[in-house]
């Protein structure tokens, strides 16, 4: 009964090897728990007998998805970013972390608008492009990778932010002086370890997180075994002998690598530190901490001295598809089009006026004369026959009798039809006419305009 916890496999660390041991679909049913310092890949997620003593790739996905959508005083919400994948010489952790961000089946690919850059050439093309996808570049490695990468980049926009995954490098807590080239870099790493790194101890630099992980894996096994034997831990699934039960899940303990918090699946939770370079001191400082066990961001610096105008940059470049020269050319082009359009409008309007003048200028004043009342055979309303003034407003045009319709010069006295007619006629230049008195309707449907002289005669 208690003997099932008395045997454990410590290792392996390679994802490919571990997958062959823990995946039940390929026919291997393993009843012995495995403690691995590694096995970061997504294919090893949620395996009931696997305990990963170092943070797996799915914790990195949780970190970035939460950090992108979080709005802080010094950080806007991000929706777009690049993920840079080295062509070769990637470490075990970097290979699987970037692979998880690249995999089309992962949550990161479906929930984040990320664009992959595979190799140095694609990275250089992204920086040269006038339509840059994002200001945010995620990569995995160390400070030397950043410096080597920048040597081949001719122009880096001031709003560019590199997020460097350097999870298992404790050097940032040993030497806090930031070298040149790291001012636009945000580093993601584990918190301080309990082992001395870079000191004059007997370990010197031979110990790292992998070595500490296997050391602490043995501590974990001893802790759980001791608690089982002493009866301090009981579990119904364990008592039933279920293969889905992981005896090393939901465990917290201290080791050489710091404080270990294992979730229900036996995977390591951690408080990832985001470290930046202060523009005031030139030293590394902790900007914030992300707790994967609570999926929560903990701010550590109330007033960070960030190098992007005091705040982290926006993800989308400002005017990324247009440079200054393009903007000038477009503005000048718009001005030319607007001026040309205005000129065409005035030309068409003046042309229309000239055509109207030409159309109405056929009335020859020499052909207008007085009309003998005895020769009038016009149809006149009975009520207007008695109006003597009405008969004075008549004449003869081209030997044809015409009637001059009187129109007052106040808009309020005009009917809607008269206003339309008057407004049309007022736009016409009748050469020598100085006063407008009304329109003249011929018996045959011809319209004309007369000027009434002061002596009362028509011309």
Task: Give the arrangement of secondary structure elements.
Layout: E1 9-10, H1 15-22, E2 34-36, E3 50-52, H2 57-69, E4 80-85, H3 92-102, H4 107-111, E5 113-118, H5 120-128, E6 136-140, H6 143-151, E7 161-165, H7 171-174, E8 185-189, H8 209-229, H9 236-240, E9 251-255, E10 258-262, E11 268-269, E12 271-277, E13 284-291, E14 296-299, H10 324-360, E15 368-369, H11 382-385, H12 388-392, E16 394-397, E17 400-406, H13 416-426, E18 438-442, E19 447-449
Parallel strand pairs: 1-2, 2-3, 4-5, 4-6, 6-7, 7-8
Antiparallel strand pairs: 8-12, 9-10, 10-11, 12-13, 13-14, 15-16, 16-17, 17-18, 18-19
Helix pairs in contact: 2-3
Summed up, what is this model?
The protein is of the alpha/beta class and 459 residues long. It has helices at 15-22, 57-69, 92-102, 107-111, 120-128, 143-151, 171-174, 209-229, 236-240, 324-360, 382-385, 388-392, 416-426, and strands spanning 9-10, 34-36, 50-52, 80-85, 113-118, 136-140, 161-165, 185-189, 251-255, 258-262, 268-269, 271-277, 284-291, 296-299, 368-369, 394-397, 400-406, 438-442, 447-449. The strands form 4 sheets. It has an 8-stranded mixed sheet, with helices on both faces. A 5-stranded antiparallel sheet has the order 15-16-17-18-19. A 3-stranded parallel sheet has the order 1-2-3.
Please tell me about this protein's structure.
The chain has 459 residues and is α/β, with parallel strands linked by helices. Helices cover 31% and strands 19% of the residues. It has helices at residues 15-22, 57-69, 92-102, 107-111, 120-128, 143-151, 171-174, 209-229, 236-240, 324-360, 382-385, 388-392, 416-426; strands spanning 9-10, 34-36, 50-52, 80-85, 113-118, 136-140, 161-165, 185-189, 251-255, 258-262, 268-269, 271-277, 284-291, 296-299, 368-369, 394-397, 400-406, 438-442, 447-449. Strands 5-4-6-7-8-12-13-14 form an 8-stranded mixed beta sheet, sandwiched between helices. Strands 15-16-17-18-19 form a 5-stranded antiparallel beta sheet. A 3-stranded parallel beta sheet has the order 1-2-3. Helix 2 (57-69) crosses helix 3.
